[in-house]
Amino acid sequence: MKKALTKIVKGILFSLVFLIILMAFIFGYKDILLEDLKSKYASSPSLFISVDQMDVHYRDEGEVTDSIPIVLIHGTGSSLHTYNEWTNKLISDHRVIRMDLPGYGLTGPFTHRHYSIENYVLFLKHFLNALGVKSCVLAGNSLGGQIVWSFTSEYPDMVEEMILIDAAGYPSEAESTPIAFKIAQIPVVKNIFTFITPRSLVKSSIENVYDDKTKVTKELVDRYFELTLRKGNRQAFIDRFSVRLDTSSYEKIKLIEKRTLVLWGQQDKLIPLKMAYRFHNDLPNDTLVILRNVGHVPMEESPYQSLKPVIAFLKK
């Protein structure tokens, strides 16, 4: 009986190892060389600046005399390119700064591999200091939105106004979660993600946060997928989901007095619309705009529709 059981266990282990090897052969991808990624995704006006021992990828465009620039911060798994269309319009009247957050895009991982909101806030402070930015309009989507209000709470004198785009921060009540997010939280399996990364998984995850799936183009999927293969980014993705969440930090939101635009996709399933109303109720000086037929990343899925309330907000 014992021998039979041992034989069965060995058979299962052999099958698992064989399956992993097969998946690695079919779906395994090596890191893409940074220089190759730069040639494709860091053309002019991209620049790099040393911050916290990282070579940070950023773009600083538009009206150079604007003393209060707009700083745009992307969300989990994304990059500064998510704001391409917004930036093209905004730079006619404003200075616009955006960067790849540590762990994403061309910037690469934190050297200490700790992706807490506190560390992202500190990084943003150092980044703005490096560029000589003393005050700005701070805008962010999802994770970027949480960094925005957390930074504003910590350094209110550096923020004139906030724009929160489907922002994170309250305890999660997701109705639907991208598969990549789920895998990054499964013990053992998550480690396989660092070398087995199917392009289809990336495509599915993008579609999950879009309302109109037809807008998820090959070019869009290629960008997300290829930047995921920047050295260190896959491990950083897992490390980010390993961070212990502060379940009470959102209480600071009620204390923020900055004028704020809360912008939300009505069909957001990752951070549902009810969270927009929580921000609206907690922020004493905000304007809430809900975008119909739009998902979690309005500035990318529906840039022109989502930019209209932003321009109106900035003019007031």
List keywords for this structure.
eight-stranded mixed β-sheet, 16% strand, alpha/beta, 316 residues, single chain, 43% helix, Rossmann fold
Compact description:
The protein is an alpha/beta fold. It has helices at 2-27, 34-41, 84-90, 117-131, 143-154, 179-183, 189-192, 199-209, 218-228, 233-241, 273-282, 298-301, 303-315; strands at 46-51, 54-62, 70-73, 95-99, 136-141, 159-165, 259-265, 286-291. It is built from 13 helices and eight strands.
Describe the 3D structure.
- The chain is an alpha/beta fold and 316 residues long.
- It has a single domain (46-315), classed as Rossmann fold.
- It has 13 helices and eight strands.
- It has an eight-stranded mixed beta sheet, with helices on both faces.
- Strand 7, helix 11 and strand 8 form a beta-alpha-beta unit.
- Helix 4 (117-131) crosses helix 5 and helix 8 crosses helix 9 (218-228).
- The longest helix has 26 residues, at 2-27.
- The radius of gyration is 21 Å and the shape is globular.
- Residues 8-27 have low confidence and may be disordered.
Helix-strand blueprint:
Elements: H1 2-27, H2 34-41, E1 46-51, E2 54-62, E3 70-73, H3 84-90, E4 95-99, H4 117-131, E5 136-141, H5 143-154, E6 159-165, H6 179-183, H7 189-192, H8 199-209, H9 218-228, H10 233-241, E7 259-265, H11 273-282, E8 286-291, H12 298-301, H13 303-315
Parallel strand pairs: 3-4, 3-5, 5-6, 6-7, 7-8
Antiparallel strand pairs: 1-2, 2-4
